[in-house]
C-alpha cells in the first residue's frame, strides 16, 4: 500500500506536470517546450502477459500527436532490479507510442549519485539502454524564500521533501502558505505535510492551529476545529471576534510549547505559564518563529 509521501508526490505531478519538465531540463535533458501537458495513470503491456503500471506519466503534446512521454517513478529505495523494471516500462511505452520516452525517478535516498550509470538491459540478441534522471532528496531544489515558494508551490513541496529538516526551508514554506491559492483539489500544504520530516510537520501543525485557512491534515483539522468551536462558544457571550482572538492566542501559545518540546528545549512551569498567559498575538508569533531554531528558552527572551 502506497505511503502518504508517495501519494503526495504522485498527486503533485498530476496537478502540476510542468514540474517534471523543469527537473528534466535541470538535468540537461532536452524536452519539447510550449506543448500541452497531461498527467495521469498509464498502463502498458509487455506483450506477453504482464501489465505494467508506472507511478505516473506525463504526456507532452496533444493526445493525438504526443511529442514524448515522461514516466515518473517514486521509490523509497532503488535497486538494480527496479531500474531494469523502469527500462522495461520505458521500452513498452516507446513501442506503443513510437515516440520519445524519458524516465524521471524520485527516491527518499539522500543522494542518488550511486545510480548515475545507464541501465543496460540485454535479452539475447536484443539490448537497450535506459538513462533515467534520478533525484534523491538532497538533489532537489532547496528553497528558503517564501515569495519564491508562493510563486511556485510545486517546487516548494519538493523542497520540503528534500530539505524539510532544514529550519530555514521549513519556515519559508510555512510562511508561504499564507499566499497559496485555496483551490479545491490542489492542497499544496497537505502534500508538503505528507512529504515532510517530523520537524517540518510540527512547525506546520503549530501554524495551522491559529490559521483561518481550512486544512485537512488530521492534527491541523482537529486543532483548528477545536479552536473554532471554542471561539464560537465564547462569541455567544463576549462576541464572536473576541472569542476567536482569544482562541487564536491560546492556540499560538500551545504551538510555541509544542515546537519547544519537539526540539527538546527545557521549559519550567513558570515559563510555560508565562507563554500560555500571553494574549499578544504579535509577541506569540515572534516566539513561535524563534522557537523553530531555539536551543534554550533564553533564545525566546523569556525568563
From TrEMBL:
Q: Name the domain of life this protein comes from.
A: Bacteria
Identify this protein by name.
Uncharacterized protein
